[in-house]
Amino acid sequence: MRQQQQLLKQGMTTSQILRIYGKQFRQIQMRYSDGYDGRCAIGVLMSYHGWNGKDEPGSARTLLAALVDIKNEGIDNELLIDLNDSGCTFNEIADSLDGVRVNSQKVSDRIL
Q1: Which whole-number Å values give the CA distances from 91 to 59, 62, 64, 97, in the listed order?
Q2: Nearest-CA neighbor of 52 among 70, 69, 36, 40?
Q3: For the whole model, what pTM was predicted?
Q4: Based on the structure, what is the number of domains in the chain?
């Protein structure tokens, strides 16, 4: 929790959160969380905002906070979902968000 509070104070971007905070999770697809240590990209952002990965009261608040951050950065949340669910790693998703040229054939093959 302390690391999370420090990151919040630093004003981390979505790509930075995925690179740094995402390291503590196992990446999954098609769900925000597996209830344990598995998260998708949006699940990582929700956890960054305090979500414990379980479907409990208050979960919607952390989803909303994550979606607001994504929108404020001009990121299409559907693209984020597509990249995650097509098999891109958190780092590859972060690179894509930062505009770094990721092997475009590799990424487009996964999405299609």
Answers
A1: 25, 22, 23, 10
A2: 36
A3: 0.79
A4: 1
